[in-house]
Amino acid sequence: MSVEMLTYAALGARLKISPEAARALAKRLRLPRSLSRDGKAVVSVDLAEIRHNPRPPSTHQAGNIALLTTKIEALQAEITGLEARAAGHRADFERERERADHLMIELLQATAETMAAKEATARLEGELAVLRVGGQGQAARRLGHLAATIVEADRKACR
Question: How many of the other CB atoms lie within 10 Å of CB of 103?
């Protein structure tokens, strides 16, 4: 029975297990540990006393892997579908945004035309009031000017 000083990697290689599993085994068996000169942990172990048989990979794990792989594929397919739907919604949003912009432009133009018409109406009402109050000679001249103003306002409104 010879006691050897092995690193976790060397112990794992001897027992045909991973270094992490060798570390867990050394902890479980409470094997004495120390640090080597290069800073790695070494374990004092008598390999003849250790009766470790690595377990074969279980079929339960393989079943879990297959199940998880199936779920991942289903989720990836769902993500692809959601991305396609999102692209469709984005296209609808862009189309409605353009439509709203065009409607806003039309509304602003209509508002400007309405304000111009109100101003022309107020001006014409003022001139009409002057004609009613003013004299007859001046009335004919004012009436001609009023008719010209109405025609001009009508042309502006039709544009």
Answer: 10
Question: Which pTM value belongs to this model?
Answer: 0.41
Distance of alpha carbon 130 from alpha carbon 120, whole angstroms: 15
Same domain, 25 and 96: no
Going by C-alpha positions, the residue among 47, 41, 35, 38 that lies closest to residue 4 is 47
Sheet with 33-35, strands from edge to edge, namely: 4-7, 41-45, 33-35
The 10s digit of each residue's pLDDT in 67-100 is 899 999 999 999 999 999 999 999 999 999 999 9
Q: Torsion angle of alpha carbons 75, 81, 82, 84, nearest 10°? A: 150
Whether 46 contacts 2, CB under 8 Å? yes
Same domain, 23 and 79: no
